[in-house]
Design brief:
Chain lengths: ~400, ~90
């Protein structure tokens, strides 16, 4: 990296730095989704987020929902938020606003049952969002550096080349970002099953190693309990078609994304790391839920590798798509930002790692990713138990 | 015809083929070593570089990805029909 890794961003009240300056319009419960969608239609510049959560679950899941929704509002790419609730749900607008009291961000609430129905609630939310958008425009920018960045790593729709091209190239970029003082989150515990050997060698201390081992073994035990003899095939059909066989083979390719820095910490889903460097987060392998955990912790951008091709992005957080093979890059060029399949044609992993870091810097400086341009923001929260 | 085979680690006893392979094709690794395919292998799948006896480890990335469920000859296609993870 020849030029310096610096950018102009937005410093939030908690000190973290945003690379985007979004106004979030967030449903606190599934029942508010229609109102949030309507506000999004009226004001395309807001980030409108609807989901299937907010009620009808047991305690641990509701805790995860509150933590993740609050974390999304606290994500440094979000400057202000309008929370839209229904009125009789568990995760109400008032409850969520209370959880955000110390964030220092402007947060407004609208409650559909109090507003007099969905049309009036949409009118209220639209007016609040217009005012917040205006306030955000006036926020001054400040200079930020790599140490202000937390970047999440994700792979979805892996193929047999993912572990040879895109993932090791992302690993190179991750190593460089950590050298520059940044933070990188390696997630997807399901995709660490069978790959504990090389991962434990990276653990900074025995305590980190023990925690990592416990997380991966717990996920493996759950997979065996629920999937029985099929546990070893925690692979989507597309993975197997592409030439992958066992979960260990997929996992060993997946963990290459983390690079070779020491693992400093293992955090729970949605929790904010306390250290800067390579950190592991306990998330499912399911991309959308995994990205939500990392976004709630404050990742400002996500590097996402794919072999089969997925269009998925994430609300308020730019997702950079990296293909593992050039055929995919050509077939889905509207969805993929960078091709690591060039490694099969002779480029080195290091060269492509540098390309990824360069692209990350451009995105941090404001260049839109394919997923941002395509409006491919999707959101879901990891859950432990059944719905009631 | 020679097809590129990619071995991720020197300890690996399988390599990934970068293009579709027909029986009789030569799979050539970056270090110049070769193995002749004894059957068709689809692009992205694995070819055995050495004989792997039933029950022995199949190694990719320098790590065990599973065990052979039958004897595998060098040059054979390695996939879910002859490789399985730990039970």
């Amino acid at each position: 990296m020849r030029e310096e890794f610096v950018f102009q961003g937005w410093r939030r009240p908690d000190g973290r730095m945003g690379i985007r300056n979004h106004c979030l319009v967030l449903a606190t419960v599934a029942c508010a989704a229609g109102v949030v969608r309507e506000v999004g239609r009226r004001l395309p510049t807001v980030v409108a987020v609807e989901h299937a959560h907010g009620c009808g679950r047991g305690g641990p899941d509701l805790g995860l929902q509150i933590k993740t929704l609050a974390g999304l509002v606290q994500n440094p790419n979000v400057g202000a938020a309008v929370l839209v609730g229904l009125g009789c749900e568990v995760v109400s607008a008032a409850l969520l606003k209370g959880a955000l009291a110390r964030s220092g961000k402007p947060v407004e609430t609208v409650v559909i049952q109090q507003a007099g129905g969905s049309r009036k609630a949409a009118d209220q939310a639209e007016a609040l969002a217009r005012r917040l958008l205006g306030e955000l425009e006036d926020l001054p920018r400040e200079s930020g550096a790599a140490a202000d960045l937390m970047v999440g790593l994700e792979c979805g729709g892996s193929d047999t080349f993912s572990g040879l091209t895109a993932n090791p190239a992302v690993g190179e970029a991750a190593d460089r970002l950590v050298e520059l003082g940044g933070t990188v989150i390696l997630a997807e515990t399901t995709e660490m099953i069978g790959a504990l050997g090389p991962l434990l060698k990276l653990a900074e201390s025995e305590e980190v190693a023990a925690r990592l081992k416990a997380k991966v073994e717990r996920q493996e035990a759950r997979a065996r309990e629920i999937l029985g003899p099929l546990a070893d095939a925690v692979l989507a059909p597309g993975n197997v078609e592409s030439g992958l066989t066992t979960i260990a083979e997929k996992s060993l390719g997946c963990i290459a994304k983390g690079g070779s820095s020491p693992i400093l910490e293992v955090v729970d889903y949605g929790d904010r790391p306390s250290r800067k460097g390579l950190v592991v987060m306990d998330t499912p392998g399911y991309d959308i839920e995994s990205m939500a955990g990392m976004a709630a912790a404050g990742t400002q951008a996500i590097l996402f590798t794919t072999g089969r091709g997925t269009p998925a992005g994430f609300p308020a957080v730019p997702v950079i798509k990296i293909s593992s093979n050039s055929e995919l890059f050509e077939a889905m060029s509207d969805d993929i930002d960078l091709d690591a399949g060039t490694i099969l044609a002779g480029k080195t992993t290091r060269q492509v790692g540098d390309e990824i870091l360069d692209l990350l810097l451009r995105v941090v400086r404001g260049q839109e990713t394919r997923a941002e341009i395509n409006g491919q923001a999707v959101f879901a929260i990891a859950q432990e138990g059944p719905a009631f | 015809m020679a097809v590129l085979g990619i071995r991720a680690h020197v300890r690996d006893n399988v390599a990934v083929v970068a293009a579709d392979v027909q029986a009789g094709d030569v799979v050539r690794l970056a270090d110049g070593s070769e193995v002749q395919a004894v059957e068709a292998i689809p692009r992205g799948s694995k070819v055995a570089l050495d004989p792997i006896a039933c029950g022995e480890a199949v190694v990719r990335y320098g790590e065990e990805i599973g065990r052979a469920t039958k004897d595998i000859a060098a040059g054979e296609y390695v996939h879910t029909h002859n490789l399985a993870g730990k039970r």
